[in-house]
Model the fold of this input.
Amino acid sequence: MTQAVDPVVAADPTAPVLSARRRGGGLLAVVPPVLVGVAGLVAWELVVKVGRVAPYVLPAPSAIGEEFWATREVVWRTGLASGENALIGLLVGAVVGLLAAMVAARFRFLGEVSIPVAAAAGALPIIALAPILNNMFESTSNVPRRLVVAIVVFFPVFVNALRGLREVDPIHRDLMASYAARGWTVTRLVRLPAALPFVFTGLRQASSLAVIAAVVAEYFGGLQNGLGSRITSAAANTAYPRAWAFVVGACVLGLVFYLAALLLERLVMPWRRV
Amino acid sequence: MTAVALAGVTKVFNAGRADEVTALTGVDLTVGRGEFVSLIGPSGCGKSTLLRLVADLIQPTAGTVTVAGKPAKQARIDQEYGIAFQQAGLFDWRTVQRNVELPLELRGSSKAERRARAREMLDLVGLAEFAGHYPAQLSGGMQQRVAIARALAVHPPLLLMDEPFGALDEMTRERLQDELLRICARFGTSAVFVTHSIPEAVYLSDRVVVMSARPGRITEIVPVDLGERGEATRQSAGFFTGITKVRRALRGGPVPAEAQA
Done:
């Protein structure tokens, strides 16, 4: 079992990550997923070519690849625009989510009330709010998109962080009591660091969601500077391989965000790499 | 002055509810300065509860707990004791050194002082070269030694330990017992030590407090006089006599079936 998501961490975010041993020697672990990916692409190409699938149903990966290369500058530029929206929304949503979780963890009543409220907010099809938010701002504004991203990001960060902040090891609680430490001292020294693995689980989920939200929010009009708006306009012009090329761009952007979150996790929690 | 004094201590959990439990009743106990006292008894006899009362992690339903001549709460606030549990309870995100520094940090010691003291304590438990490691990199026994170093970091006059060696293998256990005695002798530290191992209680203690369950109370206090402990002590006649005495005291309780646990 070698995959991008460490199965142990996914199952239990507090479990220590014993990288060297479990990952079976770095590069070697990358080979199986790459092989599967390549095989998938070859199969796709064959199905399209042999089966004479119409390009508007499904273009061949080679056609998408060509188009991607031809439009790489536009993909890069629009990717940056969408990425900027996703990043700003992600930062705002994550900071607000974390602060809200800290407040909710501090006051029992708030914590109990906030979980169902947050769950309801999480169940809201936030993307559906995009057209409404669009109307609240000027048509040239990036704010509604960033707002959508921030709202989408808030939920996983808040819920995971709150869970982590509330789960304090009883021994740590006793120890801090024996040191006569209270309130924010305990939050700073024990709750927050202990919650970090949970926070990062939330952030990893949020990082991919942020890109999806940023791209999809562009489907509802407004500025035409992002990947999402290019996908809709290419599809409307029946330029399917080009639409797919932007989809690939969005996929890469999502991966970049996910890997950045993963990297940050490693940097912030060096004790989990031991 | 006595290190710990309990007078008429009773602890009732969930008082007035259907699941009311009398964990301790009518406990009187004094621990002298520099004295090592073990609490032993079947599970449910309230030995951990007694320790937690001394630590002021819980408060008695009746009676008084005095530590270092002051009420238990004041003693806790003044960090008059260090405490260690069965699980080391180290903070994963802090290096060994910074784990030991934590109680000093909360006391407001200067950085240099913290560093020096943590070094000293890690030297004492033989882990100086692991100062920069994270707890996950250490074995269970090493983690427990760090926990002891942390408990000792503020040079507390009293050490409270709740089965600190319970999860360790026999060899590590014996080595840590010797280490603990050496440390207590060096600083004149008093100790209250909860265990369910009869040999451990006898080897470590000046007095073994034998308790029984339902309701938890002290049934007998067995004095042990083995003098200077060493490798030979574990083979000595006095050691075995002590073990027999404690075992008999445990059997004498109303729940003999569990006394061997």
